[in-house]
Amino acid sequence: MSKITIDGNTAAATIAYQFSDAATIYPITPSSTMAELCDQWASEGRKNIFGNTVKVVEMQSEAGASGALHGSLAAGALTTTFTASQGLLLMIPNMYKIAGELTPCVMHVSARALATHALSIFGDHSDVMSVRQCGWAMLASGSVQEAMDMALVSHIATLKSNVPFVHFFDGFRTSHEINTIEDIDVEKMKSIVPWDNINEFRLRSLNSNNPHQQGTAQNPDIYFQNRESTNAFYQRTPDIVQDTMNEVAKITGRKYNLFDYYGAKDAKYVIVSMGSSTTTIELTIDYLNKVYGNKYGLIKVRLYRPFATSVLLSALPDSVEKIAVLDRTKEPGADGEPLYKDVVAALFDSKFKNVEVVGGRYGLGSKEFTPSMVKAVFDNLENEKSKNGFTVGINDDLTNTSLEIKNIIHPDSGDVTECKFYGFGGDGTVSANKSSIKIIGNNTEYDGQAYFEYDSKKSGNATISHIRFGKGNINQSYMLDNIDFVAVHNQSYVTKYNILKNVKDHATLLLNTEWDMEHIDKFFPNALKKDIATRGIKLYTIDAVDIAKRLGLGNKINLIMQSAFFKLIGIMPYDKAIDEMKAFAKKAYAKAGEEAYNNNCKAIDSAKDELNEIKIPEEWKNINTSDEENTDQSYSTDKYYTDIMQPVQRLDGDS
Amino acid sequence: MSKITIDGNTAAATIAYQFSDAATIYPITPSSTMAELCDQWASEGRKNIFGNTVKVVEMQSEAGASGALHGSLAAGALTTTFTASQGLLLMIPNMYKIAGELTPCVMHVSARALATHALSIFGDHSDVMSVRQCGWAMLASGSVQEAMDMALVSHIATLKSNVPFVHFFDGFRTSHEINTIEDIDVEKMKSIVPWDNINEFRLRSLNSNNPHQQGTAQNPDIYFQNRESTNAFYQRTPDIVQDTMNEVAKITGRKYNLFDYYGAKDAKYVIVSMGSSTTTIELTIDYLNKVYGNKYGLIKVRLYRPFATSVLLSALPDSVEKIAVLDRTKEPGADGEPLYKDVVAALFDSKFKNVEVVGGRYGLGSKEFTPSMVKAVFDNLENEKSKNGFTVGINDDLTNTSLEIKNIIHPDSGDVTECKFYGFGGDGTVSANKSSIKIIGNNTEYDGQAYFEYDSKKSGNATISHIRFGKGNINQSYMLDNIDFVAVHNQSYVTKYNILKNVKDHATLLLNTEWDMEHIDKFFPNALKKDIATRGIKLYTIDAVDIAKRLGLGNKINLIMQSAFFKLIGIMPYDKAIDEMKAFAKKAYAKAGEEAYNNNCKAIDSAKDELNEIKIPEEWKNINTSDEENTDQSYSTDKYYTDIMQPVQRLDGDS
After folding, report:
1. Which of A129, A223, A306 lies nearest to residue B133, judging by beta carbons?
2. Is the ipTM, as predicted for this complex, more than 0.85?
3. Are the CB atoms for A95 and A134 separated by under 8 Å?
4. Closest by Cβ to A364, choosing from B90, B223, B329
5. pLDDT for the residue A634
6. Per-residue pLDDT, B298
7. What's the pTM value of the predicted model, to 2 decimals?
8. Which of A148, B207, B285, B321 could covalently link to A11 via disulfide, CB atoms 3.0 to 4.6 Å apart?
9. Which of B335, B402, B463, B648 is best to mutate for the A interface (most A CBs within 10 A)?
């Protein structure tokens, strides 16, 4: 097995490319990378499992992409597309047709919120839930590795079942998370491809050698009967998916089930959830069951449609007394969210009839979902009267739906190191961190994970990079909350943001600044100084702006800061890290010429000499912090500004 | 109260026009009439409740109509639209926005099947069910009268709640059924209009006097909280709808509830259903409870979203043991259809936890739903083991979902007369019948109902008109099944169709034919002759083709046949009927000139003299019918032809 460090979009697109004759695309955030990669690979001449390059066609909108998808499939070409959010909504009419005509097809969706009261480019399941009635099978991935594995399951199972598949994973959280995963060997993949089904699909196509009629209009006399004639195909699909999962397990060693149970064999309290939340819930269950002796469990929903009720029932432990179903979507006016109602319908007529089931919403628009929130969900089940229709992750003081988060927990899965970087949109921090995590994944015994908080404005605002590395796969699908290293790439952030939030005692703080000790003492907020001193934070500075200027690099301070990071973090021999950074720079600056490359190399080399360790004055420990707060007198009389705009700008909008 | 005889589309459009400043339209079958009527009324200068004519704008597609709807609403104009099927699907993106921004609006939908394996222009709830997650309130009408009443409830409740409403009724069955209903007085209507809410709506609009920002993009920090902030509006909506129903009842005398219970107070078996099926179920319950002493009941769902669980629970009788939920939609891959799952979720955590609930599908693509099918649904509940996920109305020999219809029942609601007309597309039969039912509704003590079976090819094929009249409102929402009078407007149909299907003994058969008795004896199939003789059918002929030719009317035999109908049916003085038919002809042929009108009057007058009563030979009773069948030897070896095409052409496709 070869390890690679890639994001979820790349993982899914890699498989999609292999199984497609054509891709009809209209890129939309956060699925764009999938479409763009296929386009790039096709232009580079990459071959699919049939030995051909994929024909990639960009249409005028997602409506066109889905229309072309339908037409291309009808003509006998295995065709795929990639979309999200409103893009998926525009595909609905064609989705009904493609499913109604029992056409094998996989659509990969990086699930995203829908524009309702406001637009959101971020992740939740509102888009995929809005197509659950279209007659497509739906398979959920919860991590980057799964995005690759389930993509493969989907592409094979659709050929065997003739039911089209939506393969989805969480937008940004999985689509943009970079993680070290195991690649799937193409030759092994070919060994489980159902070639006969592919032949049948091609023979069924509309062409002049095999004339037949398709897509007719039917009157009331026969429409209903014909509509029901697809039942058997849907009844067979869950078994086909499980068989395919078993075949994929043979070539990858990774075993999946339609519903995977995780946790105590005799669990009383079980969560049912889907997508990236499940990895976080797993970690939290490990921790709570071990540390507190709880009996908690989790059902991971992988095949959401067709919903295999009997499989769900046999996955549940007999000991279960209460279930919390988590939905990452909201349907105003419904008496419960979709997965909740699926589970209730499954249990209603079963031996679990008397199990109490509550439902709740989490993570809308990429709201964080953390171990502490998982604990709050279990705490709700522990209560004699458990709240139904709850929310978790917000404080709903209007309709009182939210669960209180009583304990902040950190279920570390061992030796994971957490590194956070505050960059400035466009300063190259995100790119540098992407290369750092690949350097770590490819050159050390550690697996890596990188996640990036973007602003939907995309450039010119703060970017926050979350990097984890450690031995064994890293599956915390939430942002850093127990941080070992913080890099602040813009000195003004020390007054704007709470840069030590979620930082461990004795952690390392790296600041890009022109300030010497005198200025630091003058400009650092008192609260920050006190925090640094009392919690034993190690402070380093580097004047990367000045170095970059000297080397003619403009505002690109990324390589200097990256080099300082490798120097301080000591995860691999520093010389080796320098070589790897230079190799990346060579690729990145290939077009910019020799001189640019050389200057960047100098930037990389500069860090070790220009890094300053700051000795923290003892008196910072006793500093008075009470007379700060709200220096922004000019605006402070406007309640909208002090209550809404200021917290949002401080990155405290979550609270 | 003034009585009017109109179809469901006209009923809904009448109210929509009153409450709209603007209508953004893109007509689609079967909703087109609503849009077209508003356009016509606007061009005629009709005034709405604000004293203005409505601005009607036709867009390039339903996507554009919904975008313009959103924009027009944001600008402070009360705006409506009308759509169905794929048209509704194209509105989904804007529907999320309109609801997310809490915009009062009513969209009227004549619910229609979606194109899946085949296109269907006919009615079911697949389209409205595909928007149930968009955050719109959804109010269902089950009859032409309700289409008017619920339209009014929707337009008032949306203003009070700020939640947009989808008001829907069954495509064709309600949209195109003509029925005698009570009109609502505009002045009384104005007395319950919430003028203050309209003012608030206008003041909230985007305009330069009141600058504000709307439709922003939100990041993960605040999206979820904001999304939840609409909860209170949805929580209030059911009460607002009930209050509005009560206010409407004050001005109309017709009382509705969110969930209306009908049937035995101590019912053991209850159906939950929505739309036009409910009137048929009511009739059947009356019959079965009275004739067989059954304890059956019905919950009519009116407000489908927000789904008011507690109201549903209090509407159910405590005696209920089993419930069958009927859905007029199909979601392949789901573990039950939407209304079924709503009901299960409602009961799961209630005192009805141990009630058995089964779900089933009926009426897809306008498949008939008759009293005999209602009985089959109750029979299924009577069985010790009741089938779940059933279908009713088809024979599913592939996956065995269908319920067997053991008894054909005719729960006549009193003195209803049923008249069926076989016309030829384009021969004017449908138009003549539309005027007949209005003549009856306006000039007799009878209420009338007319329903037309169309082919989606629209012209050149058989048209079948189903007319009922009787004292009191006629609410059989299914085709004629106990017929008093049959008119066959094309002599070739006697060999093609089973024209005496569902015809009562001693009924009247009127045939347009050039045949005399000798030809009749020669050309009538033996089975038909025997049927006529043994069942005492009275046979009349008229050579309308010849009369029309003599009068220069081409193929328009409609007025001749209509006149013959009034002569034979004797529902009103024949002279009066002739006057009314001539008045209609005057309007219809106003543009064609004096001569055309005069010739049509002659056609109307001709019927009484040219009508022949045929004396049925006694020997027809003993005729041998065994050696007929399948005279079409040329094709009979092709199984597709004999098993599929022949029955469909005989109008036996239903079986």
Report:
1. A129
2. yes
3. yes
4. B223
5. 45
6. 98
7. 0.94
8. A148
9. B335
